[in-house]
Amino acid sequence: MLIKRPSHIPASEITPKSVFEDRRRFLREAVAAGVLVAGGSMLPRPAQAAPQKLGPLKKTPYSTDEKLTTYADVTNYNNFYEFGTDKGDPATHAHRLKPRPWTVRIEGEVKKTGVFDVDDLIRPHALEERIYRLRCVEAWSMVVPWVGIPLADVIKRLEPTSRAKFVRFETKLDPEQMPGQRGLFGAGLDWPYVEGLRMDEAMHPLAILAVGLYGEVLPNQNGAPIRLVVPWKYGFKSIKSIVKISFTQSQPDTTWNKSAPREYGFYSNVNPQVDHPRWSQARERRIGEDGLFSRKRPTLMFNGYAEQVASLYAGMDLKKNY
User: Which one of 68, 82, 135, 261 has the fewest beta carbons within 10 angstroms of its own beta carbon?
Assistant: First the structure.
């Protein structure tokens, strides 16, 4: 398996959203005019459609008041192995993905099964903005203003039966659009990517299906057109580009748990007392916040959401059920 550890982005490289967009516009125009920078290091990524605004957006009491990670970092520093294992690969290659038209198949222990257009699952009038921390196992974190709706709202409309104990999510499988799923670029994973939640986790009001960030439609590299966001768990639980949701009686096999069961448990709650076998989880670096040699901040239990979600795991051994 090819697993790469993150490289830190110095504070000097952090760019406000407006400046970032102006820079990309300048580069596109320069290339169109035949102006090339020596060595090609400043060539822009393939042009994508202009971001589409979402709204009106409801404010919720679930948002943190922490400083936001810049739009440039949120959209250029990503884990999305379907497009490559380096943090910049998704932004470079995700223009291949066609997020419309897009359907999601619903199946299993639920009354309303079938294939649904993504826009029928997500009701625009119910969109909320939620500022959540995102914590990754490589000891880095972000603060992102997600736009979405509670996962529980969708589940209730689908009417799961009493036999539904877990919810299984599956990402699109298309190596032509997602080159990271091909051959040597496949990172040793069993595609398509699969994740899962226990039903009470899925119904928790903090869990959302996101379709945007920063008030705009979700960029491809961040999981367009629809992804899961579970803020008290490590980032790999928040599966991207979802094409199937299944309601099951038994715990689903998930991608990272199958690939490396000693390193990635089914629950994957943020627990600073449980180290990853190859690095500590006790401290983290907030992207864009610190210089290269600045001290990391302590990692919070359940990523700082313990007050809201700890009751879900009452009586469980959170070191064994990592």
Answer: 261
